[in-house]
């Protein structure tokens, strides 16, 4: 078994190669360790080498958080957020990367107002059109964008997507290119930086980097396969 540090090193080398391939500076690409199903000990090891941490579920993160040594690395919510967990999510997470409806944006904005808090957020877009995926449909993105910008307690930093389930390079890259183009259009429209393009996971992060990803979310390449039964 390779250590977590070695596995992260391998991912970083692959990030480097992908960046070289398209003439990008790898320092503009962040590595998020995705820690669902992982123990606090495993996460604390990964924290030393990753740029930030992503958890999918509010409840799971709540149970683990007291045992985490985050050393100022940010904890992001990267799973779908149910309305009734919004308050808890705002208490636990440093950022919410999965804004996918007007209702959710308005609710988070209102609760952040109560806490006097500004929440960094990403809008999650369903670029693949797969029915089992969360994220706003691309056709509704600009309406959601307008609404998010009305929410004064939300700070929109960019967009996120989950790539399609496919082995076809073209199909995968198309999905990531869609997100990049949406961000470009949104920048022109709003004048905002929207620097973060959160796209790419263990199976497709190199394609995501070639399409402009600035944040890759890696779980199994760092920690091994997940076992949801434990
Ligand atoms: C689980 C998960 C990841 C990491 O997946 P791996 O394939 O294990 O790297 C990334 N993003 C999201 C939204 C996830 O749910």
Describe this structure in words.
With 230 residues, this protein is of the alpha/beta class. 42% of the residues lie in helices and 16% in strands. It has an eight-stranded parallel beta sheet. The structure holds pyridoxal-5'-phosphate. Pyridoxal-5'-phosphate is lined by residues 34, 36, 56, 78-79, 162, 201-203, 217-221.
Question: What is the number of beta strands?
Answer: 8
Biggest sheet, spatial arrangement of strands? 7-6-5-4-3-2-1-8
Poorly predicted runs: none
How far the N terminus sits from the C terminus, by CA atoms, comes to 19 Å
Task: Calculate Rg over CA atoms.
Answer: 17 Å
Largest sheet: 8 strands, parallel
Ions, cofactors and other ligands present here are: pyridoxal-5'-phosphate
Following the backbone from N to C, one meets helices and strands in this order, namely: HEHEHEHEHEHEHEHEH
Per DSSP, the total helix count is 9
Per the principal axes of the C-alpha atoms, what is the gross shape?
Answer: globular
As a percent range, the share of helical residues equals 40-55%
Report mean pLDDT, rounded to a whole number. 97
Structural class estimated from helices and strands:
alpha/beta
Strand content: 15-25%
């Amino acid at each position: 078994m390779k250590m977590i540090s070695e596995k992260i090193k391998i991912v970083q080398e692959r990030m480097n190669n992908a960046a070289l391939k398209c003439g990008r500076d790898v320092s503009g690409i962040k590595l998020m360790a995705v820690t669902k199903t992982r123990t606090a000990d495993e996460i604390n090891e990964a924290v030393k080498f990753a740029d930030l941490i992503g958890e999918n579920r509010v409840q799971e993160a709540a149970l683990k958080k007291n045992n985490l040594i985050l050393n100022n690395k940010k904890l992001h919510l990267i799973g779908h957020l149910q309305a009734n967990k919004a308050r808890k999510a705002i208490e636990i997470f440093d950022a919410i990367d999965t804004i996918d409806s007007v209702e959710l944006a308005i609710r988070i904005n209102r609760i952040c107002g109560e806490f006097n808090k500004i929440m960094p957020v990403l809008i999650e877009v369903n670029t693949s059109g797969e029915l089992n995926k969360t994220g706003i449909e691309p056709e509704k993105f600009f309406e959601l964008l307008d609404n998010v910008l009305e929410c004064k307690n939300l700070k929109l930093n960019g967009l996120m997507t989950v790539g399609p389930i496919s082995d076809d390079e073209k199909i995968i890259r198309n999905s990531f290119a869609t997100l990049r183009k949406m961000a470009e259009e949104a920048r022109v429209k709003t004048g905002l930086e929207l620097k973060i393009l959160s796209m790419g996971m263990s199976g497709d992060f190199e394609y995501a980097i070639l399409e402009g990803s600035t944040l890759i979310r890696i779980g199994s390449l760092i920690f091994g396969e997940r076992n949801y039964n434990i």
